[in-house]
Amino acid sequence: MIRINEEIKKELSDIIRQDLKDPRINQTMVSVLSVDTTNDLKYCKIYISVMGDEEQKKGAIEGLKSANGFIRREIARRINLRNTPELIFKLDDSIEYGIRLSKIIDDININTEDDSK
């Protein structure tokens, strides 16, 4: 399953980057963070990170959902699986959360250095 998930992730990243023409997706930076496929290959949860404001995130997810049939067909063509799973796109804010925490920690470190001088 790990190999299948990684292969789907690789192909999906390639499809998003090169083949999708939807302006909602192409105007923002969209990254595939992880893929979780069920053992029976019926469903595949895809965790997506979108850099941008809330409207851009919502637009990118809607664009991916509307291109679901095309993406699924491309994955079936590129990867030889018994069943091509149904794709479920989920928004993952973990990268932005990590950046925000890192900035807070940096600000705290700068403030403690200023206080010690």
Structure description:
The chain is α+β, with helices and mostly antiparallel strands. The protein has one domain: GMP Synthetase, Chain A, domain 3, CATH 3.30.300.20. Helix content is 59%, strand content 21%. The chain contains five helices and three strands; from the N terminus they run H-H-E-E-H-H-E-H. Strands 1-2-3 form a three-stranded mixed β-sheet. Helix 1 crosses helix 4. The relative contact order is 0.17.
Outline the secondary-structure elements:
Blueprint: H1 2-19, H2 23-26, E1 29-37, E2 43-51, H3 54-66, H4 68-78, E3 86-91, H5 94-116
Helix pairs in contact: 1-4
Structural class: alpha+beta
Helix content: 55-70%
The profile of the biggest β sheet is: 3 strands, mixed
- State the total count of DSSP E strands: 3
Q: Helical region count?
A: 5
The CATH superfamily is known as K homology (KH) domain
End-to-end gap: 55 Å
Characteristics:
117 residues, GMP Synthetase, Chain A, domain 3, 59% helix, alpha+beta, single chain
Short description:
This protein is of the alpha+beta class and 117 residues long. Helices cover 59% and strands 21% of the residues.
